[in-house]
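note to self: dont lose this again. the chain is below, predicted strucutre after it. 258 aa total, dont forget to put it in the shared folder this time
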Amino acid sequence: MIAAPMKPEQEEQRMKTLPTAPPARPVIETIDLRKVYVTGDTELEALKSVTLSIPTGAFVAITGPSGSGKSTFMNLVGCLDRPTSGSYRLAGQDVSGLNETELAHVRGRRLGFVFQGFNLLQQVTTLENVELPMVYAGVPTKERRERATAALESVGLGDRLQHRPAQLSGGQQQRVAIARSLVNRPALILADEPTGNLDTKTTGEVLDIFQKLHEEGISIVVVTHEPEVARRCGDTIMFRDGALVEDQEQINAWKERR
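---
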């Protein structure tokens, strides 16, 4: 028996009662995050009570002049250092109070890193470089090989599996580094000045890869001092003197610089 169509008011009421999926947790959530360095009797507050939230799947640039606090923030978000006070949640997990061993576990399994200098092992192949994070994570050999191959194919290097870094261009080496950052399926990719050693054309190619990953739902944070790189990201967070810059017009003016 075919049911009679619902009246508009009935359909509206039905939609109100349907269960809804809970909103995704922010990939980065900090509350009053502070970092103070102490040398003798001198204290330097490198990060001043930073509170922010970056949604899952975001593509965000973090920028600011030298000494602004952006590198300190990057180190805390990357679980390379611990805050003096405040809290930091990575994809819902409070990591601000973890010890060194626990932080290393988070770095290896929940974070992917891309660095300006590529940080590839010169004596092994591209495939072996990409496999390395999975070796530390205890992934079986066959699965490591399959996942590393797929990651390299996803960045256009499926025909360079057995090449060593010295046989690759700078842009190709950075693509290997991006593939390496993906293989443990991290909650977040952190890229620290990833185009700093690249020419304009190659910079565009690397940013195209980041854009593709972002469109696939991967969360990406890029630390950069280059306005043209920040313009390719969805949003920009700016630091100055250890604090967030709240003036959006000031941020937009910086991004328009050539």
